Amino acid sequence: MVREITFDAPDGLKLYARVYEPAREVDSLPLVCLPGLTRNARDFHELAEALAQHAETPRRVISFDYRGRGLSAYDPDFAHYNIGTEAGDVIAGLGVLGIDRGVFLGTSRGGLIIHILAAIAPQFLAGVILNDIGPEIAPAGLLQISQYLNGPRHPKNWADAVEVQRAVHGAAFPALRDADWERFAHAIYREIDGVISPDHDPNLIKTLQGIDFTKELPDLWAQFDLLAELPLLVIRGENTPLLAPETVEEMTRRHPALQLINVAGQGHAPLLETGRLPELIAAFVAGVDLRAV
Length: 293
Known about the structure:
This protein has one domain (2-137, 217-292): Alpha/Beta hydrolase fold, catalytic domain (Rossmann fold), CATH 3.40.50.1820. The strands form two sheets. The protein has an eight-stranded mixed beta sheet, sandwiched between helices. A two-stranded antiparallel ribbon has the order 7-8. Strand 5, helix 3 and strand 6 form a beta-alpha-beta unit. It has nine helices and ten strands. It has helices spanning 45-52, 83-97, 109-120, 139-149, 158-169, 178-188, 221-224, 245-254, 277-292; strands at 2-8, 14-20, 31-34, 61-65, 102-107, 125-131, 189-192, 195-198, 232-237, 259-263. It is globular, with a radius of gyration of 18 Å.
């Protein structure tokens, strides 16, 4: 069962989340899913359904729309689109849902928010999954994201929306099939009054303006080190431009118990409902349950 909720951010902005409830009562840890920069809760729909209704280890799954994305309200001040504010929004949502501890899965920006939570609210984190993100971002990868976000905003129809995404990402995602591309497009775009548009505030792109992509970006290694005692799974797309192999090597050096999944034929960021990923994620989270007992 999927339950939709709205709640107030600390500054009063109306925010949205999805809650996937298991069919039976469980005492397992919830999984909290945090999407990427311009993405939304729909990215996790298939994965959330699989984990909520898992035959052996069902659990509650929560996925958030950050402010300015999906069904959350747009912020009149785009400067509030930052990982510190968004971490505070997530904490507010957890309070409304009565969640005091869980496993957190962050795709791209969602993983950066997890780093912030490790610094300001570590009590919430029982385990962490980072999907194609680490404490250090390759500038060339962020530049690539910035460039495609400034591309065409209104596909002519859904078939065109699929082809737009395939044209942009196809080289990095040769493993995807037609059905995967269709889900991908429907997660990125929303149709309102017959117009198909990216499902985020256009002002969000302004937060990338002024970045010098020829220089190293600020890192979060100090915050990553706060995850040292937690179970940690890192998922990396084989063709990702954002998470460098050297960064993963350093993450492993600092966190020797880190588990790593390399996803063949996918880039930034791997689609978590594909291949064996749902079962591998379910197994990891079940392991965190056992440790938390």
